[in-house]
Amino acid sequence: MRDSYEALGDLNEPQNGMYPSSVLDGCIPKMAREAVPQLENAVDVEIETLMLWRSRKTVFQMFCDRGYMVTSEELEETLEEFKVRFGMKPPRNMLNEKFSHIMERDLHCLVLFPLNPKVGVSDMKAAVVEMKDNNCRHVVFIVNQGLTPSAKKFIGDLPVDITMEVFTEGELLVNVTEHELVPQHEVLEDWRKEELYKRYTVRDGNLPKMSKNDPIARYYGMKIGQVVKVTRDSKAAGRYTHYRLVC
Fold first, then answer.
1. Which PANTHER family does the entry link to (predicted)?
2. Given pLDDT bands bounded at 50, 70 and 90, which one contains residue 111?
């Protein structure tokens, strides 16, 4: 028996705390070694599918909160329902959506999941064509990694009547408005902003500022010059409201 252990490199006495690789190779079945990459790939596919489902779910919640038409089925879609409909790790462009505003039926927005991990100018130009085909001036990109420098410049050079927003999947894995520490935000219509200014005799310069790049501002698609009503619950002070100007 001792001779057989010596032939394997002596399993009872590892060298420097480790068994020789030849011993391990002999002990690990070939099929098990081959299964490791397959298992890793399966985990990657599951994770990517989960991320796509989660980010898409937040998109529906976001557009519902922006006043667009979203069905209860879309808001409540489970991961299993997503897999049945789209399969595992579906092509990203299968998830593209078009939303119509509840109050302004002619107001539409495209949500695009580009195939390229990093979106470039060619993707932007293709989106502009798709916007024209769908009679809309607003598009939201859900990207895997981000934008190329030239794509960022392309967005900066767009006409003022075209709006392009960009979110990464990672930013949409969680709905920021659902965090317990985030108060309720409501964007005021122009007429409500005017009434507020008249009632309290204030101007833009008198209000606290909120960056247009704030996660909450981006979630609601806030624009520079808009006023946001922030309502917060407090055990000490009760329910109180203040206003912020997007800048």
1. DNA-DIRECTED RNA POLYMERASES I, II, AND III SUBUNIT RPABC1 (PTHR10535:SF0)
2. very high
State the chain's mean pLDDT as an integer: 86
**What are the DSSP calls for 135-163, one per residue?**
T-SEEEEEESSEE-HHHHHHHHTS-TT-E
Position 55: which residue type?
S
216-226: buried (b, 16+ CB within 10 Å) or exposed (e) per residue?
bbbbbbbeeeb
- Measure the CA–CA gap between 81 and 13, rounded to whole angstroms: 53
In this prediction the pTM is: 0.80
Torsion over CA: 165, 168, 174, 176 (sign): negative
Read off the pLDDT band of 205 (50, 70, 90): confident
At 19, the pLDDT band (50, 70, 90 cuts) reads: very low
DSSP 8-state class, residue 18: B
The torsion angles phi and psi of 66, rounded to 5 degrees, stand at -85, -5
The secondary element (H helix, E strand) that includes residue 229 is strand 227-234
Amino acid identity at 171: E
Which residue from 224, 206, 220, 170 is spatially nearest to 63, judged by alpha carbons? 220
Q: What is the DSSP string of 22-35?
A: HHHHHHS-HHHHHH
Q: How many CB atoms lie within 10 A of CB 85?
A: 10
Q: Which of 170, 117, 108 is nearest to 140 (CA)?
A: 108
Q: How many whole angstroms separate alpha carbon 219 and alpha carbon 122?
A: 26
